[in-house]
Design goal:
The complex is a heterodimer. Chain A is an alpha/beta fold. Chain A is built from 10 helices and 14 strands. In chain A, the strands form 4 sheets. In chain A, strands 1-4-8-5-11-12-13-14 form an 8-stranded mixed sheet, with helices on both faces. In chain A, strand 13, helix 9 and strand 14 form a beta-alpha-beta unit. Chain A is globular. The chains are: A alpha/beta, B alpha/beta.
Chain lengths: 382, 200
């Protein structure tokens, strides 16, 4: 618990829940008649509402991107390294909006919420949500907040997909899209990893076809396994090697199958913690949203053709050791933007931390990010 | 604005789609975006330059000509492909020139002239690799691995059937001097060439 908050922190923040009563039609054909979105905001919206920045979260993210909820918080929000006074997304200049997406499990309407039609928890009956659906709901959120046009929509990983989708769905409602450690679509390998994670969850005997709440239980083992597999894909061989090597918890081999290596106990511990705090149905939903995202699909697999819808400027960033969404995937996106003659800047940041590097403030990363956002701020008079 | 960049600017039509190979801190592209409503991209590998480009709103792509090539760009997708003071630093200048004219209707290239009289004099008098304000490095640490003279460059253009649309020579301060126009290969320090494959 910090005695005082760091000077470059947004400080103590309080989430708000916004309720929406107009039906939202989803890509799957179903409709959500009403729903809640939990958001946090940092900074101040200026008079002409031109300085707003939307933060889109990744698979297990949520609305709490920066600052602390109380002085007792051990850790700040998940992207505190990049959001705050003097940080790349400078809250002295920008009004930052961060939300928990539909289908999430941190307060926005998702599988954990009560289905108003039945009075029971949605569970597996909650519809599959796509990246387009999220962006649609975020546009409705922007309407509610009085934001006609975002100065920038920013996201890493699955969040970057939302930023990209924004540029296609609402080209006139954002000036810049920042797509970090992301990809224009998953590869077969990416989908394969998601499938292993889903299979781990759905084959847990406590899963009960997603109705675990009815049985007053949780598929902890399955969710833990899913997280363990996922976690490996967020790190690099080198960063795991540096953090754990072949270090043993005790001095010698025990000739058994319990967690003997440090890396094993780390993965188990992280997996267990995750399985207590995250919802299994949300995990299924988020991984499926990742799988389905493919803006080129409706354009005969021609990504450049899809991108001709966009009119904002793009910043694309990748990280050298990211093998989940490797620099090659970002370059594929950038090349399609070049072919479509969109305004795009691109850099590959040399960082050893694999996919997770987008959360870690390496100097070159924050320099570029800050330089780009500084220019966005000048452009909108923030 | 450096005088050589002013000369280049005159050759760029308003609204051109431009690719700048080795765009540095983006000075030229920034100027072309403002004054000529040009669109396009700069390619750069120096991290500080890339950051400066992003700060000033120049669209910059981190890409290494030597190791990554230019295959990600389509044939004839630019009006002009520029390369200022980088030809001598690439692994295969001849292939980069081919690529420039594959991607663009015309190419504009600037490079230091190794036949400049001061460099000749330096070599003759001292018997050591010339150093000057334009070429300040030692032979062993120079990024300029393919130095050539104006005559060498024109011979290469001739061999490749490139047409030289314009040629200007300037001094070390990038000024256009009448003396260097008189005897460019001896008196010109920096060459600015405008080349094309096309006849008109």
């Amino acid at each position: 618990m910090p005695d005082s908050l760091p000077p470059d922190s947004v400080g103590i923040v309080t989430p708000q829940t916004l309720h929406f009563d107009s039906p939202l039609t989803l890509a799957c054909g179903q409709t959500l008649d009403s729903y809640d979105l939990v958001i946090e905001t940092y900074g101040t919206l200026n008079a002409d509402a031109s300085n707003a920045v939307l933060i889109c979260h990744a698979l297990s993210g949520h609305h709490h991107a920066a600052g602390y909820h109380s002085m007792d918080d051990r850790k700040p929000g998940w992207w505190d390294s990049c959001i705050g006074p003097g940080k790349p997304i400078d809250t002295r200049r920008f009004f930052v909006v961060s939300l928990n997406n539909l289908g999430g499990c941190n307060g926005s309407t998702g599988p954990n919420a009560t289905n108003p039609k039945t009075g029971k928890t949605y569970g597996p009956d909650f519809p599959v949500i796509t990246v387009q659906d999220w962006v649609h709901s975020q546009a409705i959120l922007a309407d509610r907040l009085g934001i006609e046009c975002w100065a920038a929509v920013v996201g890493g990983s699955l969040g970057g997909m939302q930023a990209l989708q924004w540029s296609l769905s609402y080209p006139n409602r954002l000036r810049h899209a920042l797509i970090i450690a992301s990809t224009p679509r998953l590869t077969a390998q990416n989908i394969a990893f998601n499938e292993v994670a889903r299979k781990a969850i759905t084959s847990d005997p406590e899963f009960h076809d997603g109705r675990y709440h009815d049985f007053d239980t949780l598929p902890r083992q399955g969710l833990m396994l899913a997280r363990m597999v996922g976690h490996i894909t967020y790190l690099s061989d080198a960063s795991m090697g540096e953090k754990f090597g072949r270090e043993l918890r005790d001095q010698a081999y025990k000739f058994g199958y319990d967690a003997e290596f440090q890396v094993e106990s780390y993965l188990r511990y992280q997996g267990e913690r995750f399985s207590e705090s995250f919802d299994a149905n949300t995990y299924l939903l988020m991984t499926r949203a990742l799988d389905y995202f493919d803006p080129a699909y409706e354009f005969d697999n021609n990504l450049a053709a899809a991108l001709t819808q966009a009119s904002c400027e793009f910043l694309v960033l990748s990280f050298s050791t990211d093998w989940r969404f490797s620099p090659a995937r970002s370059e594929e996106l950038v090349n399609a933007m070049i072919a479509a003659r969109r305004k795009v800047s691109y850099a590959e940041i040399d960082a050893p931390w694999g996919h997770d590097a987008f959360l870690i403030p390496t100097p070159r990363y924050t320099d570029i990010f800050g330089a780009y956002m500084g220019r966005v701020a000048r452009e909108v008079g923030a | 604005m450096r005088p050589d960049l002013e000369i280049i600017e005159q050759w760029i039509k308003p609204g051109s789609h431009v690719l700048d190979l080795g765009c540095g801190d983006g000075t030229l592209l920034d100027h072309l975006q403002r004054e000529k409503q040009a669109s396009g991209y700069g390619l750069e590998i120096n991290p500080d330059h890339i950051t400066t480009c992003m700060d000033r709103g120049v669209t910059v792509i981190e890409q290494n000509l030597d190791t990554q090539g230019l295959q990600n760009f389509d044939d004839q997708s630019f009006d002009v492909v520029l390369m200022t003071q980088a030809l001598q630093a690439v692994r295969r200048p001849d292939k980069v020139l081919d690529e420039m004219l594959r991607l663009g209707r015309e190419g504009i290239v600037t490079f230091p002239n190794f036949a400049y009289w001061r460099l000749r004099w330096y070599l003759m008098r001292r018997g050591r690799m010339p150093e000057s304000e334009t070429l300040p490095h030692k032979w062993y640490n120079t990024p300029n691995i393919h130095l050539c003279t104006f005559k060498d460059f024109e011979a290469l253009c001739h061999r490749k059937n490139f047409r030289i649309k314009n040629r200007t020579v300037v001094d070390g301060q990038h000024r256009d001097r009448w003396l260097s126009r008189l005897w460019p290969n001896m008196l010109g320090q920096i060459a600015i060439y405008r080349i094309t494959r096309q006849e008109d």
